[in-house]
Write a structure and sequence with these properties.
Length: 95
């Protein structure tokens, strides 16, 4: 397991999907800027974090996520599976 701490602005608000087993998951994208380099990270929230993520993960809001990096196969995108999420006060949109 690879643990990460990710800070940035929510680039794309949370939307809901269901797994093959019918479990709801919240998906959103975080934009993080470091040393003039911009990176985008796909974030997944499940279980107890699902409801609060659907309510609070709004485009433009600052966020701090502690999670795990996961990859389903060597050719798929890497995702951050959130273990905890902290939201700052809502601010102006990034763009």
């Amino acid at each position: 397991m690879t643990s990460v701490i990710l800070q940035g602005k929510i680039y794309r608000s949370a939307h809901s999907k269901k797994t093959n087993k019918g479990t709801p998951v919240a998906l959103f994208v975080v934009l993080s800027e470091s040393n003039r380099e911009i990176n985008f990270f796909n974030v997944v929230a499940t279980g107890n974090l699902y409801q609060s993520t659907m309510k609070n993960a709004i485009e433009g809001r600052m966020v701090k996520i502690v999670g795990e990096l996961r990859q389903n196969s060597p050719i798929s995108n890497t995702r951050v599976v959130a273990l905890s999420i902290e939201y700052d006060d809502y601010s102006e949109k990034y763009y």
